[in-house]
Amino acid sequence: MFDYLIVGAGFAGSVMAERLASSGKKILIIDKRNHIGGNTYDYYDESGILVHKYGPHIFHTHSRDVYDYLSLFTDWRSYEHKVLAAVDGQLVPLPINLNTINTLYGLQLSTDQAEAFLKERAEKISPVKTSEDVVMGRVGKELYEKFFKGYTKKQWDLDPSQLDASVTARVPVRTNKDDRYFTDTYQVMPLHGYTNLFTKMLSHPNINIMLNTDYRDVITFVPHKYIIYTGPIDSYFDYCYGQLPYRSIEFRFETYDKDIFQPTGTVNYPNGQAYTRITEFKYLTGQQHKKTSVVYEFPKAEGDPYYPIPTAENAALYKKYQLLAETAPKTYFTGRLGTYKYYNMDQVIAQSLTLFKSIMKDQPIEMQANGYKKTLQQT
Ligand code: FAD
Ligand code: UDP
Fold first, then answer.
1. Residue 330: burial class (beta carbons within 10 Å; 0-12, 13-18, 19+)
2. What residue stretches are annotated with the UDP-galactopyranose mutase C-terminal domain (predicted)?
3. By C-alpha distance, which of 73, 300, 25 is closest to 193?
């Protein structure tokens, strides 16, 4: 008898598996894919270059707890991601910063002058509700159209005015020269990759792993007390209220017989091309190799559900599933698909750590994992 049957071996499911196993529970973790790691899975391609199968994954977090927790299973390399955008025939920094403005407009503005420049152009919008409002309110129409309108249409097949404000709010605007994509306290990559991290995380004797298996095919004959579900929530309930929309992506990998392909980790293509961005893995991983591998991302409607689509309508539909989930006996939902949230890795990890604590809240326990020992406090 397993204590927990966990569906999905991405971060959401694997964190639950590891925490519960380390507190003495017997776990079966199931994934329909042929590997652990969910969307963060990485592997060495034919040329021996470490690539991310489901698109570039850059780890960043403000959370000391999340960083400390993952540090049980990996060493790190420091990595601050940088992005350039191809606009008006030039490659300029994204997020928009002082250098972006000066390069695009042939100016030599100071920070104060750049603030005035943006203030003059920004539109006064209140309340800020949509992804269009966010950007128009920060930089005005021209920069909005150069950097955000076309990219967002490609990525989501929606106009920014149809998307929740939180989507484009992920990308800040700066008037200094900071050209980092993220400003989190911890910006690191697992030294030997994500799959290696997951292998360590799931190597506990209380954890059994079943791959290439849809949980529906085994659930009736594997005895278990509880379910933790991290797949798409609408699928769990047989789409009883209709399908939740997701955005998918086709990843096209190329290997070039040269040391370096592009000047930075990612180049975004807001306009023109069918792909949104190209990422060169060696920047992310620090690998030395005489060839280089990149991935082009082509967003599409059909395919694996990668992105929940943050619109008011979809949030309302999710709410109905969430209410159903709250009544599902002995079943917990977590993760990007399980809770239909456009979450980064660290948010998913934090969400699962919180769920673990709430499951265990009545019984403070001693957890032990790879030499790490901590008494859980009741929260
Ligand atoms: P997943 O990793 O999707 O895991 C869910 C698992 O459940 C899957 O492996 C799936 O096969 C399995 N499953 C589903 N249904 C079933 C079933 N019926 N039976 C058995 N198994 C099932 N985050 C960052 O922090 N930084 C980044 O740079 C970043 N880049 C990203 C780039 C792309 C292109 C994408 C799509 C996402 C990116 N993310 C990034 C987000 C990150 O991928 C997620 O936050 C994280 O992987 C979610 O983990 P999860 O466990 O919730 O879901
Ligand atoms: N975005 C944009 N232009 C860009 C980069 C981002 O319009 O060059 C918008 C777009 O809507 C995108 C969102 O900002 O989906 C969030 O960007 P992020 O890079 O965080 O997306 P992710 O890495 O999650 O795909």
1. exposed
2. 146-342
3. 73
- Tell me the pLDDT of the chain (379 aa) as tens digits: 999 999 999 999 999 999 999 999 999 999 999 999 999 999 999 999 999 999 999 999 999 999 999 999 999 999 999 999 999 999 999 999 999 999 999 999 999 999 999 999 999 999 999 999 999 999 999 999 999 999 999 999 999 999 999 999 999 999 999 999 999 999 999 999 999 999 999 999 999 999 999 999 999 999 999 999 999 999 999 999 999 999 999 999 999 999 999 999 999 999 999 999 999 999 999 999 999 999 999 999 999 999 999 999 999 999 999 999 999 999 999 999 999 999 999 999 999 999 999 999 855 554 444 444 444 433 3
Identify the domain containing residue 260 by its residue range: 246-300
- For ligand 2, atom 25, the nearest C-alpha belongs to 155
Residue ending a domain, choose from 261, 277, 300: 300
Residue 216 resides in a domain: yes
Q: Is 55 in the pocket of ligand 1 (CB under 6 A)?
A: yes
Nearest protein Cα to ligand 1, atom 47: 39
The verdict on pTM exceeding 0.85 is yes
Q: Do 346 and 265 belong together in one domain?
A: no
Q: Which atom of ligand 1 is nearest to the CA of 30?
A: 20
* One-letter amino acid of 54: Y
Q: Do residues 289 and 314 share a domain?
A: no
Ligand 1 atom closest to 60 (CA) = 25
- Please state whether beta strands 50-52 and 42-44 pair in parallel, antiparallel, or not at all (unpaired): antiparallel
Q: Which of 57, 275, 277, 300 to mutate to test the pocket of ligand 1 (most atoms within 8 A of CB)?
A: 57
Q: How far is the CA of 59 from the centre of ligand 1 (A)?
A: 13
Q: Which ligand is nearest to the CA of 86?
A: 2
